[in-house]
Design a protein that fits this description.
Length: 528
């Protein structure tokens, strides 16, 4: 079973018909019967013939949506229909594609549906699933984060169970007060542990922006709580413990943090947190900043494959061949680094002695502390191809390679490239369609004379410019103005957030609003 969204028009104009007659309606004025189509190429040919003035991007985009509507959606699949009332209807697809030739244009492409519920409050749907529903496409699949099972739960009158990979207990900590009470309820040897991602969600934030970090730290300080390791360190998926660091000593004269060090029945994650807690700086000297640490990379928190002192060299070679590794750390019995074996070091050792041991092939390895500034190690990783990562006890806890850096910074660059294309397309269409004097009219008088084109506008100024009826009409776009301006404002806020440093990557779901706006701009202005 799969789950889909099929919208009822840009302004919900097909909503009443869809709900009253048990139909999914695809729209696409002027397009003929798709019953005889069997492949994407067949649908594409029909779309291109009906809309000869549209460019390749638009034709391809519409082809994908219509092919999904006519062929990929199957009887038994679930479908969600976002309503103008800010509620959601959910139904089960009951039949194949139909073309109603006698119906009004725009109501001819049909799939029969049995509406199971028509009034789900969107607030009952968790934010990640709401974001997935936020695409500007008419027909698309909800495929991420267990969407089909979650939609099915909503139809049964249950609450949205959330992401299948989410911590069920952490999901219940919906506000700081609940987190405080949970920490208070627990005994010293049973601390509250959760991921940084789930910890941030208690305050309703997804990334560690400076303002959010300051707010959370102030809240923790006022309640006498501390996170170990600090929630500003590590990747968004790292585990932390939340402790009553400011509580008075017990009868033995020790703090909650110190008492944990004597507890042997703790999980590995909590034991690591305890060791980190012993090294926490005092409250007065602790810097309230977020830096881009080595530990912010997921790979820095993932124990790499390794060999131990005393292993055979052939063991290291076998692991390297099986895993496709260029090097392998050599650890002592306590998990601390004693060196690295690589194909180069193996070759040199064999040149000196064909029966060389692992010890003979082991050379010094590059090792960073997980709290080091990542930027300080980029040159080393570029030159050597890797750097090993050690934790607070100087035990190896991760490995950062050039590939990890490429993925990480590629992920961080992508949102900026996306926003830049949105701005470029806005500039081009505004310069082409709106006279300079009207562009200058939205700029404060003192700066208007310095505006020579749309390139001199701030991103926020485009909203003011296109809110003017005369300017909007000049674009000649057959889309809803208010929906466009809302999407533009969401993108402005997204762009502003990008300008504030955060060590956490932007997720695909967080990119959805900007991606939807870009898709719309590409459709309205298909020039390259």
């Amino acid at each position: 079973m799969r789950a889909w969204v099929v919208r009822a028009g840009e302004n919900g104009e097909r909503e009443h018909t869809a709900l009253a007659e048990g139909m999914l309606l695809a729209g696409w004025l002027g397009l003929g019967d798709l019953t005889g189509t069997a492949t994407r190429d067949d649908v594409k040919a029909a779309v291109a013939a009906t809309y000869p003035d549209e460019g390749p991007y638009t034709v391809g985009n519409w082809t994908g949506q219509l092919f999904r509507f006519a062929h990929e959606i199957q009887p038994g699949d679930l479908v969600a229909l976002p309503l103008k009332s800010l509620r959601v209807a959910i139904g089960r697809v009951a039949g194949g594609y139909e073309y109603l030739a006698d119906a009004a244009d725009g109501l001819r492409h049909v799939r029969r549906v049995e509406w199971l519920v028509k009034d789900i409050d969107r607030q009952a749907i968790q934010s990640d699933l709401q974001d997935s529903m936020g695409s500007l496409l008419t027909v698309f699949e909800l495929s991420r984060f267990g969407a089909a099972d979650r939609i099915a739960a909503l139809t049964d009158g249950k609450s949205d169970p959330g992401r299948p990979d989410a911590d069920e207990f952490a999901a219940g900590l919906t506000e700081p007060a609940k987190l405080y009470e949970e920490v208070r309820r627990r005994s010293a040897d049973e601390p509250l542990t959760l991921s940084i991602r789930d910890f941030l969600a208690v305050w309703g934030v997804q990334r560690r922006y400076p303002a959010a970090v300051e707010k959370i730290k102030a809240d923790l300080d006022s309640r006498g709580l501390v996170t170990v390791p600090p929630f500003t360190e590590g990747s968004i998926n790292s585990q932390i413990a939340v402790l009553a660091g400011g509580a008075e000593p017990d009868e033995s004269g020790t703090s909650a943090v110190t008492r944990l060090t004597g507890t042997s029945s703790l999980s590995a994650a909590v034991q690591s947190a305890v060791h980190a807690a012993e090294r926490l700086p005092d409250e007065e000297s602790q810097e309230h900043t977020v830096a881009y640490r080595v530990s912010n990379l997921d790979s820095a928190n993932r124990m790499p494959a390794s060999v131990r002192i005393g292993d055979a060299l052939k063991t290291a070679m076998t692991i390297m061949v099986l895993r496709g590794f260029s090097q392998l750390p050599v650890l002592d019995a306590d998990g601390r680094l004693r060196g690295v074996v690589s194909w180069e070091s193996i070759g040199r050792a064999h040149m000196a002695d064909p029966q060389a041991s692992l010890e003979a092939a082991t050379v010094r390895g590059q090792e960073a502390d997980r709290s080091d500034d990542l930027l300080d190690w980029i040159g080393t990783v570029q030159q050597s191809g890797y750097v090993l990562v050690r934790d607070h006890d100087h035990k190896v806890c991760g490995l950062v390679t050039a590939s990890d850096l490429t993925v990480q910074f590629g992920t961080r660059v992508r949102p900026f490239v996306l926003v830049e294309e949105i701005e470029q397309r806005l500039r081009r269409v505004v310069d082409r369609c709106i006279p300079l004097d009207r562009i200058r009219a939205v700029v404060p008088r003192g700066r208007a004379s310095r505006v020579s084109s749309a390139a001199n506008l701030t991103f926020g100024a485009y909203g003011h410019l296109l809110r003017v009826p005369e300017n909007w009409a000049a674009l000649g776009w057959a889309i809803d103005q208010q929906h466009f301006l809302t999407a533009l404002e969401e993108c402005r806020q997204f762009r502003n957030d990008l300008m504030h440093f955060s060590p956490d990557p932007v997720t695909d779901d967080q990119l959805l609003p900007a991606q939807g706006l870009l898709e719309l701009l590409r459709s309205m202005d298909p020039q390259n």
